[in-house]
């Protein structure tokens, strides 16, 4: 009869007699283990008093035989709860008891003092979190991002992560040596997935009663609404009642290496695509969940204390066991937000159900997983779990062979989590010429005769904003782009006489900043683009005589990078954009004599790629923008003789779309940008002699929108 059976027999006898369970030290509390823990900073006192908050049903179901000093309590939902004390090492017994008797996980919050437990109940916001209306628009309309992601989920990658976490460490217990090593692997892995992204950061965070085990948080900063936060999390620790040579034997493959592996795959796919969210997204691997939701509780309460606007939380805890069930997953319906539940169900029905997957529902009781921490802090949360309870959780048999042996079930959860992230955080399209950060392109006008300047927000004359004039006509707008990464376009000025250069952040002259002077006026600013995936534009300079090329990183001459010169003056830079969605802008070249076309990927000749030649040089590139909403730059061509117009999607001649011709050649393409904010670029037309102005929404002539006429043709649109 094994130790687990002995425990259950002893517990049954105690229940019958009403006796309290004996207080004993844990099996690994020996000098060697204590020494290892001390060297790694593991904070664990097995005989220390821990104060738990649990439901009355759980208390009466057997925890009363372990706990002491019980006190009845209620939360703000009116639920009957109990505050009691146990020894730190007895938390393993409490967790096991909940598993065996209630067929669920968790079941309690843990605190270092009774005062903290009482404060937790006083500040509980569960009712608010469960019934509050959506804190953001829970809409499902981002198929362009989510559908390609779903197709990229790879089962072997998820399986490999589960395998590593469940075999490289005997356990991931919060108070063990191994439980302090495994978070570092998670941190390093996530850090590697976000390398070279200035908007991605990875941090470790501890809590007072997490035993020194750190929670890991990877943050992708939102481009448009950085203060609105989306959370996807799972717990990283494991627990078991079995020991091998004094070391806990808790592989925790399903509970919850599967959840962490699922989250890791979501991070990989989202970041590899170059995705930039509108809202901030935080991926979390919580510490010490198995001993009272400690890591997630500390994080959720910290967000509450900071007044953070968390608009939705998804919990992934146990994702890889489906044996004996016809369902693919279950939505947990208690202790979560009703509106967010409906959103998650909608995601499943929209993205997963058409592939034959099925869903069900279940309840899991008080404090069953980390979503409860967010709910108690007043934030909307949802929890999806595997369709049937894995019978060997919290035992040495919680291994990949028992739950799989593949990660096929976790693949489905990864797809749902990708949909959750893509639809709740949405996708920032990196709108060009957007001076106010509202996701719509604006028009910067300059009068080439008087030096007056105006801005039309969203190409609408009714939103006209007067801007300081620059009467010295030697000052010319050299380019427009976001040089400081604040998702607001800046205006770069160059003095054609002196070579001085200025920057107007967000098109505001009051914030004018001088850039380095380039006295040799043969140097021309040919393009602005984010060539280094920094989240901000660089300046691409070329000398008109020598063909020398330099790139000022972030507009800083002190960080100038030299490129291979292009001495042949027939080669001209005609645009820049991210044509392949790798997060780096590319430079588009055209030879005005031969009609050859090249791309310099990342703005370097070393990554040169030849495009289809257009030998009829009457065809001119008049714009580079994303006209179909796939976040890849496209090329807009116009024939200078016939007025024909064509788009090459993603710079590919094989995917071209013929637009309506405009045979009156006085109509010129004055600008391209997403003036309507629908994620697809529009074409701004201006009549060179009559001053009429039109928009073709999404480059579609049938969606022509006349704009306010500017009859003074000295007013020009700056690009």
UniProtKB/TrEMBL annotation:
InterPro entries according to UniProt: FG-GAP, Integrin_alpha_N, Peptidase_M28
Signal peptide range: 1-21
Top-level taxon of the source organism: Bacteria
Record-linked Pfam families: FG-GAP_3, Peptidase_M28
Ranges where the Peptidase M28 domain occurs: 216-416
Keywords: Signal
Name of this chain's protein: M20/M25/M40 family metallo-hydrolase
Species per Swiss-Prot/TrEMBL record: Agrilutibacter solisilvae
Species classification: Bacteria, Pseudomonadati, Pseudomonadota, Gammaproteobacteria, Lysobacterales
